Every structure is written in structure tokens, then in C-alpha cells.
Amino acid sequence: FEDRRTAPYSIHQIALMGASEGKQVGEWFGPNTVAQVLRKLSVYDEWSSIAFHVALDNTIVINDVRRLCTEGPRPGELRRRVRHWKPLVLVIPLRLGITDINPVYVQAIKASFTFKQSLGLIGGKPNHALYFIGCVGNDVIFLDPHTTQSIGVVDGKEHEHEWKMDSSYHCSQANRLHILNMDPSVAVSFFCKTEAEFEGLCESIRAQMVTPDRQALVELREEQREHWTPLDDTAADALGATALSFYEDRQFDDSDDDFELLG
């Protein structure tokens, strides 16, 4: 995320990759667009070696995630048939109302913050992007990174100016907002370092977010529905603009223009 073009998640790369999602440089990005852009940029992030999955239609297809995260045996391990799990970043774009959040989703949203795999929510208010990291009662806690500051490089953090620059990548305070004042377009995010953590996340979702007394925030399925066109996390890039348009239309996020670029 360093502020230089060569950094895989720099503002430069995010803005340029946004063109593949129909966003010109300088246009606002909503939660879904940000998720799709980061998914594409993650392919070039060899250092982190993560699997980045954006769930379609409020649905986590478990076997799609397993196929994405499971690497084949490494050299010398062919006979042992050892599977290697790539750490997973899972993002689920959601539309939780037309102009305001439907209160039926509130308990499920609050429950998502309690999972140890939670990375929080990408969201905000109209024309103002925020990063939500938790909740207290009916208030959500958010970080607001929109601060103008000097460009700089962190490098090894061996000198005072590098320490100061590193601190500029972190918010010094958190704020609160009533949960119903959030824009209804959000993206719920999770990180699963191991396959066991992913399985634990699925169990937590079943136990706390897909229950008879709550409106389901997401759906869990072993396989895709039959009517879905096969489309994994790399297929949209391979199929071109037509597939990208179809892919975008299937998201429950139609208020991207109400947000600004995170950066």
C-alpha cells in the first residue's frame, strides 16, 4: 500500500485497475468495485501469496473457495499428496437496503464483527468511504483514513523519518456511527490463514448469521447453483469485457457512485 507506483496495492495501481471495472481515474469506488480491484491486484502480490475471493450473490460457495485456496503438492511431495492452503481473503459485497440499512440485518452485521476471522466492513456514508472494525451496542466503530499528508517510503523503518512515515499509514483515533446511518452498500471481509480457520468461519456463519430468528446476511452452499454460469476468480479477466460486465451486474451493489476512492 506504499504511495509509489511499484507497490502492488498503491493508489496508482488501484486507480489504473479500476478502469477494468468501468471506473476512470479520479472516479469514486464503492465497496464492490474496491473488492474486485483488490482481487485482480492480488494476482501480482507474490510476497503475500494470498487467495482473494469475492463472493457472488451474497453466497459463499465452499468448494469454489477450496479450489482457489488449495495448491497442489510441492516438489518432492508428489507421493505424499500434501495439500497446501493459501491464506484466504474473503470479501462479500452486500446490499442491505434501498436507501437505508434494513434493521433486520443489524444483528447479523454485529455478529460478523465477533468472528476471529473478521477483517471488518468496507462501507461508509454517501460520498464518504469508511472502514468499520467493530461495534459497541448499536454503534459501529470506524477508521477514517482521509488525511492529506506528504508522500514517503517506509523501507526498513531504521530511521526516524521512516518511523514517522510508517505511522502515517495508521489512524490515530477511531470514531463511532449508529449502525443504521451506514450506507446499505457494504462489503463484509474475512481472513482465513488455514483451511481449519475457513471451516471455523463457515460454522460461525451457520450458527450466528443463518438462523431462524435472523434475516440471513449470507448463504453457504457446497457447490454453485445449476443456473449459474461457471465463473471463478480468474475467468472474468480471461473472458474480457463482456464477462466483466456480466460479473459486475450480478453483484448486490448498485451505489458505487455514492462512495469515494479509499486511499
What features would you highlight for this structure?
alpha+beta; two-stranded parallel sheet; disordered C terminus; 8 helices; 263 residues; 7-stranded mixed sheet; single chain
Distance between the termini: 9 Å
Radius of gyration: 19 Å
As residue ranges, the low-confidence spans are 234-255, 259-263
Q: How would you state the average pLDDT, rounded?
A: 78
Shape: globular
- Range of helix content: 25-40%
Structural class: alpha+beta
Oligomer: single chain
- Strand segment count: 11
Order of helices and strands: HHEEHEEEHEEEHEEHEHH
Beta-strand share of residues: 15-25%
- Alpha plus pi helix count: 8
Strand order of the largest sheet: 1-5-10-6-7-8-9
Q: Major β-sheet, in short?
A: 7 strands, mixed
Pfam families: Peptidase_C54
Main location: cytoplasm
Keywords: Autophagy, Cytoplasm, Hydrolase, Protease, Protein transport, Thiol protease, Transport
GO molecular function, one term: cysteine-type endopeptidase activity
